[in-house]
Design goal:
globular; 345 residues; 12 helices; disordered N terminus; 13 strands
């Protein structure tokens, strides 16, 4: 049987009361720390939370991201460009895996899923932040979960602005890239690097605007699907890049980023040049071969004269490579325009 002292020294009791007073605030805070805090809810840390705006909403993090998973390749490219490799613990859904391997930038970064990882996989990697390039990454049943569901697990998130709901973002796709750079630069503590990249991109945009084409150039942006072609529409990023130099997407009246059309419509538009999107699942080489061997499509002047421009899939979406892509696209459009007959007035 334990021995219970009949009385305790006064000094001991006084010390216990003092200790209890000091521990009381921490004990009151403990339930909040255990339950978790949504990324856009109140912070539980003593330091001021990191607040940021994304997809028309205000979000916040209790501390800078430390264990980041990039759910799409152009989202990973953004992290790497902002010197965030030491915090990039995994990537998924590499659209241009050969290019990623050739660049050497991904060396040491594990591919944790061929497509999107499950929530269980994200939790197993103890990630505290997910960044995505397409809205599908946060759709129910497609990936680790919605952004609100991730917040409930105390996992922050970011979706590149161009992929946000059109009702939640501006129509300035180039401004969206600048916003992504500056926002993620601040979250990563790489503001100076982000501003350097933003300044360079702004200069590249200005240069493209300052080199208008000598004549209008009509362009087909052929994404995929040989039977019912998926083409880029008026909301596509390549369309925005084309318009800077005065070129025009022949399907700019299609109020979508991408959509299906018929080959009869393509023939009716008779584009001056065809941009072939080169992706793992639909290569530029396959599309070129199809066009060259089709008895009707091969008669199109752009096909007959070999007026093709190839863009890797990650070059056709907004991101850290967009400035260099814009420069190359402008050069190649000028080369095409120089060989075209004078425009009919």
């Amino acid at each position: 049987m334990p021995i219970i002292p009949s009385a305790l020294p006064a000094a001991f009791l006084s010390a216990c009361r003092s200790l209890a007073q000091r521990l009381a605030p921490a004990l009151l805070l403990a339930p909040a720390l255990i339950s978790g805090t949504p990324a856009h809810g109140a912070s539980t840390d003593d330091a001021a939370p990191l607040r940021y705006r994304n997809c028309g909403q205000e979000w916040q993090l209790p501390h800078p991201p430390q264990r980041i998973i990039a759910l799409n390749q152009h989202a990973a490219d953004l992290m790497l460009a902002l010197d965030g490799k030491d915090r990039l613990i995994g990537v998924s859904w590499l659209d241009d895996d050969a290019e990623a391997a050739a660049s050497g930038l991904y060396q040491g970064v594990p591919v944790i899923a061929r497509r999107y990882p499950s929530l269980e996989a994200v939790l197993a990697h103890e990630s505290d932040f997910l960044v995505a390039g397409f809205a599908t990454a946060f759709m129910p049943g497609r990936g680790p979960g919605t952004r609100d569901a991730l917040s409930a697990e105390r996992i922050g998130s970011y979706l590149v602005e161009e992929a946000c709901d059109p009702m939640q973002r501006t129509a300035d796709v180039f401004g969206d890239v600048l916003h992504d750079l500056r926002t993620m630069g601040r979250l990563l503590g790489a503001e100076q690097r982000a501003q350097t990249l933003a300044d360079r991109f702004s200069s590249q945009i200005a240069a493209a605007r300052g080199q208008p084409l000598p004549r209008p150039v009509n362009v087909l942006v052929f994404d995929s699907d040989l039977r019912a072609p998926i083409v880029e529409g008026g909301r596509g990023f390549v369309t925005a890049m084309l318009s800077l130099s005065g070129a025009r997407n022949v399907f700019d009246d299609l109020d979508l980023s991408r959509g299906n059309v018929s080959w009869e419509q393509v023939v009716a538009h008779s584009p001056d040049v065809i941009v072939l999107i080169d992706a793992n699942w639909s290569s530029a080489a396959d599309k070129r071969s199809f066009l060259l061997h089709d008895p009707i499509l091969s008669a199109l002047p752009a096909v007959r004269d070999g007026r093709f421009i190839e863009l890797r899939f990650t070059a056709a979406v907004p991101g850290i490579k967009s400035g260099e892509v814009l420069e190359r696209l402008t050069r190649e459009l000028h080369a095409v325009a120089a060989k075209l007959p004078p425009a009919v007035q």
